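Researcher: For the record, we're logging two predictions in this thread. I'll number them. Prediction 1 follows.
Model: Prediction 1, sequence and structure:
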Amino acid sequence: MNGFFITGTDTGVGKTVVTACLSLLFKNQGMDVGVMKPIETGVDPKCSSTANSDAKFLMKVSGSTDAEEEVCPYRLKIPASPYQASEIAGTPIQPATILEQLKILQSRHNMMLVEGIGGLLVPITTRYNVADLALEIGLPLIIVSRTLVGTLNHTLLTINAAREHGLKIKGVILNRQEGGDLDEVEKQQGKLIEELSDTLILGTCPNIEDVSVEGIQQNLGKIEHAFQNIFSI
């Protein structure tokens, strides 16, 4: 089964934007791409849109016609970790339900992009975290990181956690969330991550000011150039 589990060094690093970019990139390569956001929090299931729901945004960008409950089995209103949000809502999360929905999606698509929530150690239940879910899903890991100062610590911690859990790492994608030129420190981040961790940098996602289907499509040429290492071994 082809596909990737996309995680991040922390919340708000840009996993959804990178996942959306990858979905268009693989579609442009002629692949049948399915997307999944197993859990999202901070979203009211009764009142959500592509503007506040990662799952709906990924579905729109990828052109998904799968059912929302398949793409995102758990949607919780409280903006917190899945475990805390589910405790407050009184809605326990069952990892088996996520895996069942994933199997349905895998039967329809030859490429799956599964976006995690937060970082690898974010709790889903008391003794089950995002890394455990990624291990059960079994897809290679793509780590989304920043170019800003502090990213070395966050990225190396994430890489170490992934290895401790037995996860196979495809590589790291640096995500530019600000415009302008990179300074001398930021330019070195990718090289240092590779040097210090023996982990491949798959590319640097360009800053996309208009985070929409159209905005990503307009930047597809830059994305293809930036993510050329995604097809490496």
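Researcher: Logged. Prediction 2.
Model: Prediction 2, sequence and structure:
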Amino acid sequence: MIKTPAIVIWTLKYGDSSLIANCYTKKDGLKSYMLNGVLKSKKTGIKKALFQPFNLINIISDHRRKEGLNYIKEVSINKHLGSIHNSISKTTITLFLSDVLKSVLQEEGGENESLYDFLETMTLWLDSNNSNANFHIKFLIELTRYMGFYPNISNNNYEYFDMLTGCFTNNNNSKNILSGKNLNSFKEILGMNFDEIKLLKWNNSIRNSLLNEIIRYYSLHLQRFKTPKSLSVLHEIFK
């Protein structure tokens, strides 16, 4: 048996009473679990409320299968969240990021404790700070560190950013160039930490335009990446 902290990424209803839960574990990376009967609480000791997106839990499981579904013997809260699931804006952010991670974590396999630590730290930051319309943009940029295509910040005084190479450049001979207002916004948030993003004076148009470009950046570097269906909801919430 393995006991490991885990972060709930997403769940899928299976049949009338069960769920399949996708969790990122600290010890074994991404794992999928069959939660038999969890929607009928009287028939199982595992509560469905524990499996809301981005919940921080502890899992005891066999983890005998490298692929396919695992089964959880015991589950408990690891760290309590106070606001994420009680705020419309924060819930919308977590659902959007959950959609992103569905695609991203297909590309990232095996154990990666540094990625787990990043996801946990960001969850706790979002929970303990006021809702911020720029959080998910900064999150997506920082997540690329663990995916292998974090922007090369050398020559960040150049006129353009080539999203295909991930480098700043003075050549505008690519179909995937970031320039103008999008480039200025990108440079601005790239140089900030999470505590500073509240200082950004962006309107909705600037924010949505840059987010769309970052989604395109992901699409260029991750073959299986799909534009999140919840993107339009996110735009609506932060308009």
